[in-house]
């Protein structure tokens, strides 16, 4: 086992993954503590309102994203690997145009948020809070851009430092604002201020990085003819179709739940999902993130690509299982202690069920990276549409004939099982062996 671990540690993918994981653990610890403080300081009902606002904005926002961030992470990594400076300039100019459209759409949503909040929930305050969250999302696009470029050029350490520092600040400022009496509105103001503080730093880092890694200059980017961005825009829209529908989870589930259940139930479901998916948060996001760029560098050899895709799944599944078993044993004792005895016990059953239902999630970890690589993202989009229609229908109808939390679990189960069909299809077709 020691020899195997040493062999793994020499792999660039594993080293980059370990670097991401170090920063991620710090952030996850703070996020976990902040979620407990939010529940305790706000109370379950106000936390339910917080969950409703986040799901409301998250659901609408997914219909506005043009797929530019995901497209940038795939195409820029490919172009940088070829050292194709012209292609990098084309891609960066496409991102600028697409991001400008996205921000304008967000501002349009901000104008409509207050009347929509009144119409859906009978609360003007939900609309006001939604506006603050929308402004945070708009500012954060600048920070996200720099982080994607850092990953594309494999400057992982700097990426981790910036990303985790920003996330820690976004986590701590809302708590501080809440402690000094800012109320629920102060939570969203804190996020907005934290994002604004990182915008100048992100711009400076990108300008310095452009010189260090021989990326196109600002002048070269804006000198790109519009026609050369068309292929990326087309693929970006396909990626958006898949990504935006996929982003309906979990915000779309909470949004539907908020229409058929009290805010306290929404709060319990959000906490249970956060706790139940904590084991996968230790590893899966980083693996999926790195797979997007690393697997793209292996696309010339199908055998190598298939072998490494299977290796990613196997190792991820093993470590995810260990983390899940640990959480399953600890949670029944820990949840009542940290979330108080008044509503802590109500969280245990849904949390444990989510852990069990999430065990197969590593089997789908490389689906999106490979489908983007083979330009087959529409496969995922079609399956995701079917999956979410079934999930929403199950929860909306189920909540009228059974406990809303039970309907939520049934919908979550559908979301875990159907994507396995896509994994099987990818290995049987796109990654098929020569003798298959």
Mean pLDDT: 80
**Cα distance, first to last residue?**
33 Å
Number of strands: 0
Could you estimate the helical fraction of the residues in percent?
over 70%
Number of helices: 19
Query: What Rg do the Cα atoms give?
Result: 22 Å
Query: Rough shape?
Result: globular
The H/E string reads HHHHHHHHHHHHHHHHHHH
Low-confidence regions:
none
Features:
436 residues, 83% helix, single chain
Task: Describe this structure as you would to a colleague.
The radius of gyration is 22 Å and the shape is globular. The longest helix has 51 residues, at 12-62. 44% of the residues are buried. The two termini are 33 Å apart. By secondary structure, it is mostly helical. Helix 3 (68-82) packs antiparallel against helix 4, helix 4 runs antiparallel to helix 5 (124-152) and helix 13 (284-294) packs parallel to helix 16. The protein contains 19 helices and no strands.
Question: Could you outline the blueprint of secondary structure elements for this entry?
Answer:
Blueprint: H1 2-9, H2 12-62, H3 68-82, H4 85-121, H5 124-152, H6 156-179, H7 183-212, H8 218-222, H9 230-246, H10 251-260, H11 263-276, H12 278-281, H13 284-294, H14 302-339, H15 344-357, H16 367-373, H17 377-401, H18 404-417, H19 419-428
Quick structural overview:
With 436 residues, the chain is an all-alpha fold. 83% of the residues lie in helices and 0% in strands.
């Amino acid at each position: 086992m020691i020899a195997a671990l040493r062999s793994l540690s020499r792999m660039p993918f594993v080293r980059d993954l370990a670097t991401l994981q170090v920063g991620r653990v710090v952030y996850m610890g703070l996020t976990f503590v902040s979620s407990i403080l939010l529940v305790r300081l706000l109370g379950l009902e106000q936390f339910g309102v917080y969950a409703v606002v986040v799901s409301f904005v998250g659901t609408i926002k997914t219909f506005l994203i043009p797929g530019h961030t995901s497209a940038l992470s795939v195409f820029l990594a490919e172009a940088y690997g070829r050292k194709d400076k012209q292609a990098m300039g084309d891609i960066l100019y496409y991102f600028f145009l697409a991001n400008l459209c996205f921000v304008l759409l967000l501002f349009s949503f901000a104008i409509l948020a207050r009347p929509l909040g009144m119409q859906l929930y009978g609360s003007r305050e939900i609309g006001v809070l939604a506006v603050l969250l929308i402004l945070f999302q708009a500012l954060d696009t600048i920070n996200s851009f720099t982080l994607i470029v850092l990953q594309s050029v494999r400057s992982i350490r700097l990426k981790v430092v910036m990303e985790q520092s920003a996330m820690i600040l976004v986590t701590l400022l809302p708590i501080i604002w809440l402690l000094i009496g800012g109320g629920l509105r102060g939570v969203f103001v804190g996020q907005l201020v934290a994002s604004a503080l990182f915008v100048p730093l992100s711009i400076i880092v990108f300008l310095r990085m452009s010189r260090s890694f021989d990326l196109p200059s600002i002048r070269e980017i804006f000198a790109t003819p519009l026609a050369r961005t068309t292929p990326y825009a087309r693929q970006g829209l396909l990626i958006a179709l898949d990504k935006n529908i996929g982003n309906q989870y979990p915000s779309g589930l909470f949004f539907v739940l908020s229409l058929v259940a009290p805010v306290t139930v929404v709060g319990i479901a959000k906490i249970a999902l956060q706790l139940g998916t904590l084991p996968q948060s230790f590893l899966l996001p980083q693996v999926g993130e790195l797979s997007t760029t690393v697997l793209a560098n292996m696309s010339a050899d199908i055998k190598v690509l298939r072998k490494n895709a299977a290796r990613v799944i196997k190792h991820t599944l093993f470590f995810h299982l260990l983390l899940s078993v640990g959480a399953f044993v600890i949670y029944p004792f820990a949840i009542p202690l940290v979330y108080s005895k008044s509503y802590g016990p109500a969280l245990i059953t849904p949390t444990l069920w989510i852990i069990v239902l999430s065990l197969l999630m590593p089997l789908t970890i490389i689906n999106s990276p490979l489908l983007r690589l083979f330009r087959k993202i529409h496969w995922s989009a079609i399956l995701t549409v079917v999956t979410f229609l079934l999930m929403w229908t199950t929860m909306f109808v189920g909540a009228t004939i059974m406990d809303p939390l039970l309907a939520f679990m049934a919908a979550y189960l559908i979301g875990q099982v159907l994507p396995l069909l896509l994994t099987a299809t990818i290995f049987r077709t796109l990654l098929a062996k020569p003798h298959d």
